[in-house]
Each structure stands twice: as C-alpha cells, then as structure tokens.
C-alpha cells in the first residue's frame, strides 16, 4: 500500500512537522509506504508529484487550514483530520483510513 499525506497548521511550524513525523513513523511500523508533504512556514516541502498521485492508494489530509492545490486529490480516496489527530495517535489515523478502504 502506498499513501500520500499533506500536513499543515495555521502557523506552519511545530504541529505541521510533528504530524508528518508521526504519520511516517506509524506507516513504517505497519509496513505501509507513505510520502508526506508539508505546507508550512517554509512553504511546500516534499511536494507530492504527479507520479505519487498515479500510484497512491489513498490520501490523508491533516490540516486546520485550507491546503494548497487540494483539487489534485479529487479522484483519490481521501480522509481529512485535524492536524493534532496524527500528533496524538497516528496509528489510529492510518488504521481508520485503511479500514475505510476495505
């Protein structure tokens, strides 16, 4: 399974990167490949490419603000969360998405 994710918070500093790190760690534990784009104070980092979109199974949006270029996910199963949810329990976020995919 290959997931993509976008993390962003209003300030774009701590929570954005904590959520991204936790999602990466939780996915790795589960044997799931993930690419996490951050949209923060530094701008867009680790941007999800067209190739990523073609091969991904689903997308996680962990954000308290409107993310940039969200229309690129219109044809991809996507689940949205508040940015603090993967900070508190990234395993539950990934489990919920995987379960929804069936």
TrEMBL record:
Gene Ontology biological process: phosphoenolpyruvate-dependent sugar phosphotransferase system
Using the record's annotation, list all stretches that form the PTS EIIB type-2 domain.
Answer: 1-99
Which positions, given as ranges, span the membrane? none
Cellular component, GO, one term: plasma membrane
Keyword vocabulary terms for this entry: Kinase, Phosphoprotein, Phosphotransferase system, Sugar transport, Transferase, Transport
Instruction: Cite the Pfam families for this sequence.
Output: PTS_IIB
Q: Which PROSITE patterns match?
A: PTS_EIIB_TYPE_2
Keyword Transferase part of the UniProt annotation: yes
> Which one of the record's GO molecular function terms can you name?
protein-N(PI)-phosphohistidine-fructose phosphotransferase system transporter activity
The name on file for this protein is PTS sugar transporter subunit IIC
This protein's species is Mediterraneibacter hominis
